[in-house]
Amino acid sequence: MVNGVGVNHYRMIKIRSFTIYHLPFTIPFSSLKNDTCHFSTIRLMLPLFSMQEVSLDLLNKYNVAIPRYTSYPTVPFWDETIDSEHWERMFVRRFEESNEKEGISLYIHLPFCEKLCTFCGCNKRITTNHSVEEEYIDVLLKEWNLYRKSMNAKPVIRELHIGGGTPTFFSPENLQRMLQGILADSIVPKVHEFGFECHPNNTTREHLQTLFELGFNRVSFGMQDSNPQVQEVINRLQPLENVIQVVKWAREIGYESVNLDLVYGLPLQTLPRIEKTIQDAISMRPDRIAFYSYAHVPWTSKAQRLFDESDLPETSEKMRLYQKGKQLFRAAGYTDIGMDHFALPTDLMVKAHNEGTLHRNFMGYTVQQTGLLLGLGVSSISDIYYGFAQNKKTIQEYYQQIDTGELAIFRGYFLSQLDQKMRQYILDIACQGKTHFHKEDLEVLRQYTFHELDELAIDDLVTWGEHGVIVTDLGKHFIRNVCKAFDLKLLSSEVQERVFSQAV
């Protein structure tokens, strides 16, 4: 029995849902005697499927260059220039729409690292000179004040995330100065989510305590892999004891949510090694685990050229690493959120996932759905719903632009109504594993999307009809491919193969 449904009965549902994918979901499954099975019913059953093995044929077919869909349209389709005045007008409009009702989100990018991790594709600068901290904070606060002048009220900061680089490269005192400069004339509601990323090797208890007292309640530690050989090849030697220590401190101080970042597909990773890493992570009982696929993009990240590509796991082996991780997380009681994220049933992310309120943006999955995400710092990206804008990607250019009294944005995109609709479909798939089609969109969906869904359904990755689509358990392995079915920009354009990382 599976949740009160006999096994044979359950298999019949799965077969039937596959064979009628051209029909609306509102049509009942007549083979189930007097029962009816509607769209919502299928949704409840999907998580009950046992994890399926992924064939080599499927891997070869769907392991293509494809976006991670933290935005739509994705960055390669943005304009290389952006009208700053129009951006400011739209920013003001969105702030006035969102601030009082939902609050706003902030992302702060701190780019400095003391050592180069060869697997990393983030925007960073390697230095051991900590005098760079003060100048960077000075400029970042100038940028904040430029936006602050456009706000007609105190900003209600419901969500704040500090990423990098290595945020804990900065001293606790400088982090405090930066955050006090932002929060001094802002409102922080009782219900908020403030988080930051940490390197276990340089995170002190003082870092954790200082940020906690400033309202931070979530912390993420970059564990990546616990095997010394893997750590050596990615230039990130990090004793497991360091990770255990910072997690212990975070618990003692009172952080509500502790996340561990793990990466699969790294050079020299094997099934026994990834299993040991995952067991090490689970033993600390983090509230959340991000199990990221290593994105091999040496054409954009020169550091990835520093190790031998022959040390990378083959595609089929990489999928086995992922499946082993998924199996171990589920066995340990973690819920599969989607897009490489797992959480304990008590975590707010699981609650948001179950209630259909989970959101995804450039910060990843979030339980806060504010209408405006403002990115501060070099290379940061802002999302104001009507459009995106990215800051200058080098520190020198960023400093120069801000010092002139102008925003440091250099490229972006303003969304059409159709773009907004497609973005929502993609968000639904990424966050809920399903979406419902609107009648007014059917014409364009028939032109671009339905053919893609046909192909996905043949491979048992989705079930669908003209009312909507649901991702199967097998399809969760290829969630980016399912999102692609709604990516009209990608489907209607020729994109260079090496723009995106591989799906697996």
CATH topology of the largest domain: pyruvate-formate lyase- activating enzyme
Using the alpha-carbon principal axes, give the shape: globular
Report the sheet-strand fraction.
15-25%
- Low-confidence runs (pLDDT<50, min 5 residues)? 1-51
* CATH architecture field of the largest domain: Alpha-Beta Horseshoe
Describe this protein's structure:
- About 45% of the residues are buried.
- The model is unreliable at about 1-50 (pLDDT under 50).
- α6 (about 170-185) packs parallel to α7 (about 205-215).
- The protein has helices at about 5-20, 40-45, 55-60, 85-100, 130-150, 170-185, 205-215, 230-235, 240-255, 270-285, 315-330, 350-355, 395-405, 415-430, 440-460, 480-485, 490; strands at about 105-110, 110-115, 125, 155-165, 195-200, 220-225, 255-265, 290-295, 335-340, 340-345, 360, 365, 375, 380-385, 385-390, 410-415, 435, 460-465, 470.
- A nine-stranded mixed sheet has the order 9-10-8-7-6-5-4-1-13, sandwiched between helices. Strands 14-15-16 form a three-stranded antiparallel sheet, with helices on one face. The chain has a three-stranded antiparallel sheet with strand order 17-19-18.
- It is of the alpha/beta class and about 500 residues long.
Features:
single chain; 504 residues; alpha/beta; pyruvate-formate lyase- activating enzyme; 3 domains; 9-stranded mixed beta sheet; 3-stranded antiparallel beta sheet; 38% helix; globular; disordered N terminus
